Amino acid sequence: MRHLMSPLDFSVEELEKLLDLAQDIEANREKYAHACAGKKLATLFYEPSTRTRLSHEAAMLNLGGSVLGFSSADSSSASKGESVSDTIRTVSCYADICAMRHPKEGAPMVACQHSSIPVINAGDGGHQHPTQTLTDLLTIRSLKGRLNNMTIGLCGDLKFGRTVHSLINALVRYEGIRFVLISPEELRLPEYIRHDVLDKNQIPYEEVVRLEDAMPSLDILYMTRVQKERFFNEEDYVRMKDFYILDKEKMKLAPEDMYVLHPLPRVNEISVEVDSDPRAAYFRQVQYGVYVRMALILTLLDIHVD
Ligand code: CP
Hints:
By secondary structure, the chain is α/β, with parallel strands linked by helices. The protein has 11 helices and 9 strands. The chain has helices spanning about 10-25, 50-60, 85-90, 105-115, 130-145, 160-170, 190-200, 210-215, 235-240, 250, 280-300; strands at about 40-45, 65-70, 95-100, 120-125, 150-155, 175-180, 205-210, 220-225, 260. Strand 1 (about 40-45), helix 2 and strand 2 form a beta-alpha-beta unit. Helix 5 (about 130-145) packs across helix 6 (about 160-170) and helix 5 crosses helix 11 (about 280-300). The mean pLDDT is about 95. Bound molecules: phosphoric acid mono(formamide)ester. Phosphoric acid mono(formamide)ester binds near residues 49 and 51. GO terms for molecular function: amino acid binding; aspartate carbamoyltransferase activity. It catalyses: carbamoyl phosphate + L-aspartate = N-carbamoyl-L-aspartate + phosphate + H(+).
């Protein structure tokens, strides 16, 4: 039985296969419409979500399966003090696969150690968000035709943004990747990722504060919101929250073939006037998230469709 805790749980070859499957699903939706008939997905969300929960549910429904679950700790027995390990033992009796989001780093890992069904980490604290990474990889590969030889700008809250941490871990395995880390000093990428992931893999990167300075050299600009829920005090969040606002003027500095991605939700960091720019790819990214989660469910359940 396989789980998905980190993007590194799949080798590069396995990832290629998964992305190929997602692209086949995109092109042949009908072929997969009953692939999970009789199967159930449980979504165990201890933290708010729109895309991750609903896209897992849409993915299972598109595959002909059904869904059950809870969308907040308050509406589950976690509010009465039930442990993650007892919850997953229980849910293993109801479902064939589950996706779990939790505010505590490592909670999905605890779940998979006590589970008899595959567990998908749907985001754990400031740690990892592997299904967002699969979404990002599929989006980049679909739009640019490759995952290697690229300059990726990561902008915003690089300290708490788990989507950025997961994406860096996944991309360092490809040839010719270079990062531009765009953040205020207080929200720099954590040292353990700079040293243990970037330096160890000899990945070139530079750190800049001004978005304008980075724009002309980028193939992909990955914007992120400042993670309000991870700040210890409101004052710091208010000071940081509008540090970056991507608007039409800044987009003029970017190459014609640069794409803007964002895991969403956005707050103010991308002005709505950018949405009509053909390089704004964040809502296409949402759609790719459904195809890749369909491919993931099939892979973890070891279901093959021919
Ligand atoms: N991208 C993402 O994780 O969005 P949600 O918080 O809405 O699930």
